[in-house]
Design goal:
The complex is a heterodimer of chains A (434) and B (202).
Chain A: H1 2-15, H2 31-44, H3 48-62, E1 65-66, E2 70-77, E3 84-90, E4 94-101, E5 108-114, E6 123-127, E7 134-137, E8 143-151, E9 157-167, E10 181-183, E11 188-189, E12 194-195, E13 199-202, E14 208-210, E15 215-223, E16 227-234, E17 239-249, E18 256-257, E19 262-266, E20 278-284, E21 288-289, H4 292-295, E22 315-318, E23 322-326, E24 335-340, E25 344-350, E26 354-358, E27 364-368, E28 372-374, E29 380-383, E30 388-391, E31 400-404, E32 409-416, E33 419-424, E34 429-433
Parallel strand pairs in A: 1-3
Antiparallel strand pairs in A: 2-9, 2-25, 3-8, 4-7, 4-9, 5-6, 5-8, 10-13, 11-12, 13-20, 14-19, 15-16, 15-18, 16-17, 17-19, 17-20, 20-21, 22-25, 22-28, 23-24, 25-26, 26-27, 29-32, 30-31, 32-33, 33-34
Chain B: H1 4-25, H2 30-35, H3 44-54, H4 61-75, E1 78-79, E2 84-90, E3 98-104, E4 109-117, E5 124-130, E6 140-145, E7 150-154, E8 159-167, E9 173-182, E10 195-196
Parallel strand pairs in B: 1-3
Antiparallel strand pairs in B: 2-9, 3-8, 4-7, 4-9, 5-6, 5-8, 6-10
Helix pairs in contact in B: 1-3
The chains are: A mainly beta (434), B alpha+beta (202).
C-alpha cells in the first residue's frame, strides 16, 4: 500500500508542470492509528496513556494466542487498553470472519496481519472501521493470520470476539458439496504428464452451475479441452474462475453477476465426453490455484459463550493440585508450565472451556476454566510473624506498597512462587514473602 | 524582555486556557466549585486535564477519579508543619493525589521535592497554590511542574500555601514528598519550577 502511494506520488510529481502546487494525500491511516493521532493531537503525546496503549498493542501482536479455525472468547477491557491477539492458520481462498460484540460505548479496534514475511514482520491485511461489528480478513497466501483487538483507553468490562474461518466462495454447483468432488487439484493427468488444475464436481446433467462470487463474465467460449466454458472475473481478488464442460452457457460476456446467479448447466462437453457429467472448476491468479479452500466448508463451530464471563479481568487462583498452562485452548496443546494449587493469575479472556490467563511474571496461556476460582474469597487467614513488606509484585525487587507490622492480620488469596497474594485489614492488596 | 505583541498573545492564550479549564470543569458538580475557584492560570496539570477532555476521556470512571483526586487534594489538604517529609504508595490503577497545606514564612524560599519510584517513566504534576482566604476564595497558582524533582518558589507576604503532587493517569508507585524552607535563595542545582506565573509572588 505504501509502495503504491509512493509510486502514485512519483507519477503525480512527474505530471506536474513547474510552479504547480502538488497536492499530496497521505495513505489512509487505520482506525487504530487515527485514534492514537487524535489522542496526541488532544495534547496527550508522550503521556503514559498513549505510550502504554501503543506498547500494549505491539506486545499483543508479538504474542498471539494460537486458536482453532472456529473460536469465540470473551476478552477483558482494561483501563490501560489491554490488547489481545489470536493467531490461526488460514489458507488462500479462506477468510476469517471476525465478529465483535461490545457494549454500546466502548470502541474496539480490530486489525489483521499476515505472517508472510516471518514472525517478526507481520503484514497488514486491513482493519475494521469505527462501528463495524463484522470484519472479514482474507489472506492472499496460505499462512498464519493474527487478529488483534484493542479496546479504547480507560474503559472497563469485556467484549466478545468470534472468529470463523470460512470459504470465500459458495459452492459452484447448486445443491452439491465437497462429497461430490471426484478429482482434486494436482491429480495426475495424461499419464502424469500434467496435473489437474481444478476440481471436478459431479452432478446430473442440467444441474445449475452458479457464480461462486460476485464478478463479471469475462469470456464465454467453446474450446477443445473445456468444451463450453465460462470465465468469471473476480476483480476484487484479482483472480478468474473457470467453469468447464458445461452442457449450456446461460450468460454472455460482460454480464455482471452476483453470488448464486446461474451461469450455465452441468454437462460433459470438451474432453469430458467419455466421463459422466461434471463441472471442472478452476481458479486462476497468475497461474492455477487450488480451488478447494475456496469452496470447502470449515469443520467446527465456535464454542458457546463462557459460563462465567464475570471472571474476565478478575484475579483467580488454581483449585487443582496441578494445572497445565497451555499454549492454545486445546487439551492437546503444548504445556508451557505446570502450576501448583492456588497459583494466582489474572483472567484476560474466557470461553466455554478455557480461560486465557496472565501470570504475575507476565507469562500467559490457557488453563482449564474449571480449574480456576475467584481469588477474592480468602484462602486462609494469616498473621504476620514479623515486620513484612507488602509489595506490588511477587518479587523481592518489586516496589513496597506498605510495611506490615508484626501480628497484622491478612487474608491470603493466592500464591506465586515464594510469595502470597494477600489483602490487609486496611484494604490494601499486595504480595508478601511466604 | 517581552514585546507588547507577545504580551497580548500571552494574554489571549491565558484567556483561552481559562475558558477551556472552565468548560472542562463545568458538569463535575461540587468538585468544580472548587476548581472554578482556581485562578485562571494554566499549568502542566491543567493542560493535562484539558487534554483528557479534548480526547473525550473524561467521561470514563478512571479519568473522573483522577480529576476528583486532584480536587480533593486542594479542598481537603493535610495540614502540616515545615519541614515536612512524607512517604507512601500511590496505586497506578487507582488515581490519587497528595495535598498538603502549610504556612509559608514571609519572603522565604520554599523547596518542594517530589519523587515517584515508578516502574516506568511518569509525569508527576506538582502545583503550589496560595490557599484561599476569607477575602479571596481563589486558589492562586504560585508554581508548577510536571516532572518529579524540585519546585522552588517564595511567597512575599507569607501565608497559607497548598502543594499538590499527582502522577499522571496509569502511573503510581512509592512516593516521597518533602517541603522545606530555605534560608536564602538556594544555590544547589536542581530543576526549578517549570512554570511560575507573571504576577506570582517573588
Amino acid at each position: 500500500m505504501r509502495c503504491l502511494a509512493v509510486t502514485a506520488a512519483a507519477l503525480l510529481v512527474a505530471s506536474c508542470k513547474p510552479g504547480e502546487v502538488l497536492e499530496w494525500s497521505a495513505p489512509p491511516a487505520s482506525a487504530r492509528e487515527a485514534y492514537v493521532r487524535a489522542l496526541e493531537d488532544a495534547g496527550l503525546h508522550g503521556t503514559a496513556l498513549v505510550r502504554d496503549w501503543v506498547a500494549m498493542g505491539e506486545i499483543a501482536l508479538g504474542q498471539p494466542a494460537f486458536v482453532p479455525a472456529a473460536f469465540r472468547e470473551t476478552a477483558m477491557v482494561g483501563p490501560d487498553g489491554a490488547a489481545h491477539a489470536w493467531r490461526l492458520m488460514v489458507r488462500r481462498g479462506q477468510r476469517v470472519r471476525v465478529s465483535i460484540r461490545t457494549d454500546s460505548i466502548t470502541r474496539v479496534f480490530v486489525d489483521a496481519f499476515e505472517l508472510r514475511g516471518g514472525e517478526r514482520d507481520p503484514t497488514s491485511l486491513g482493519w475494521s472501521q469505527p462501528g463495524d461489528t463484522v470484519f472479514d480478513v482474507e489472506p492472499v497466501t496460505d499462512g498464519d493470520v493474527v487478529i488483534r483487538a484493542q479496546p479504547e483507553l480507560l474503559r472497563h468490562g469485556h467484549f466478545q470476539i468470534t472468529l470463523r474461518t470460512e470459504p470465500t466462495f459458495v459452492f459452484p454447483v447448486s445443491g452439491r458439496g465437497m462429497p461430490d468432488v471426484g478429482s482434486v487439484y494436482g491429480d495426475p493427468r495424461d499419464a502424469g504428464a500434467r496435473r489437474h488444475h481444478g476440481i471436478d464436481i459431479f452432478a446430473p446433467r442440467g444441474t445449475p452451475v452458479i457464480a461462486a462470487t460476485d464478478g463479471t463474465v469475462s469470456r464465454v467460449s467453446v474450446t477443445a479441452v473445456g468444451g463450453r466454458v465460462v470465465w468469471l472475473r473476480d476483480g476484487r481478488r484479482s483472480q478468474s474462475l473457470y467453469y468447464a464442460h458445461l452442457d449450456s452457457q446461460l450468460v454472455s460476456r460482460g454480464m455482471r453477476v452476483e453470488i448464486g446467479d446461474t451461469l450455465g448447466l452441468v454437462g460433459n462437453t470438451g474432453n469430458a465426453r467419455t466421463t459422466p457429467p461434471h463441472l471442472h472448476f478452476g481458479v486462476y491468479s497468475r497461474g492455477p490455484v487450488d480451488p478447494s479452500p475456496f469452496v470447502r466448508p470449515v469443520a467446527g463451530s465456535p464454542p458457546a459463550p463462557p459460563r462465567n464471563a464475570a471472571l474476565v479481568g478478575a484475579w483467580v487462583r488454581t483449585n487443582a493440585a496441578e494445572t497445565a498452562l497451555l499454549e492454545a485452548p486445546a487439551s492437546s496443546a503444548g504445556v508451557t508450565s505446570r502450576l501448583p494449587r492456588s497459583t494466582a493469575m489474572q483472567v484476560l479472556g474466557m470461553n466455554a472451556e478455557w480461560a486465557r490467563v496472565r501470570l504475575p511474571d507476565g507469562a500467559s496461556g490457557y488453563v482449564d476454566a474449571d480449574r480456576v476460582e475467584p481469588a477474592d474469597a480468602a484462602l486462609a487467614s494469616s498473621v504476620t510473624t514479623g515486620e513484612a513488606s507488602l509489595r506490588a509484585g511477587p518479587a523481592a525487587a518489586s516496589e513496597i506498597i506498605a510495611t506490615l507490622r508484626a501480628g497484622e492480620a491478612v487474608s491470603v488469596q493466592g500464591r506465586f512462587g515464594d510469595f502470597l497474594l494477600v489483602r490487609t485489614d486496611r484494604g490494601q492488596t499486595g504480595w508478601i514473602q511466604d | 524582555m517581552c514585546s507588547p505583541a507577545r504580551l497580548r498573545q500571552a494574554r489571549v492564550r491565558f484567556a483561552l486556557a481559562s475558558v477551556s479549564v472552565a468548560a472542562f470543569l463545568s458538569g463535575c458538580g461540587a468538585v468544580d466549585e472548587i476548581r472554578q475557584r482556581i485562578a485562571p492560570r494554566t499549568s502542566p496539570h491543567a493542560e493535562y486535564a484539558d487534554a483528557l477532555r479534548a480526547a473525550g476521556l473524561t467521561a470514563s470512571p478512571l479519568a473522573g477519579a483522577w480529576v476528583e483526586a486532584a480536587s480533593e487534594a486542594l479542598v481537603a489538604p493535610r495540614k502540616v508543619d515545615l519541614p515536612f517529609h512524607d512517604e507512601g504508595w500511590l496505586a497506578p490503577d487507582a488515581p490519587g493525589a497528595i495535598g498538603v497545606r502549610f504556612t509559608a514564612p514571609r519572603a522565604r524560599w520554599i523547596t518542594v521535592r517530589a519523587h515517584l519510584d515508578a516502574a516506568q517513566p511518569a509525569l508527576v504534576f506538582v502545583d503550589a497554590f496560595r490557599s484561599p482566604t476569607d477575602s479571596d476564595a481563589r486558589f492562586i497558582p504560585l508554581a508548577a511542574t510536571d516532572s518529579a524533582g524540585v519546585l522552588r518558589f517564595r511567597v512575599w507576604r507569607g501565608g497559607a500555601v497548598i502543594v499538590r503532587a499527582q502522577p499522571e493517569l496509569l502511573r503510581g508507585g512509592r512516593y516521597e514528598l518533602s517541603v522545606t524552607i530555605e534560608d536564602e535563595r538556594p544555590t544547589t542545582s536542581g530543576v526549578e519550577a517549570t512554570r511560575t506565573y507573571a504576577g506570582a509572588e517573588r
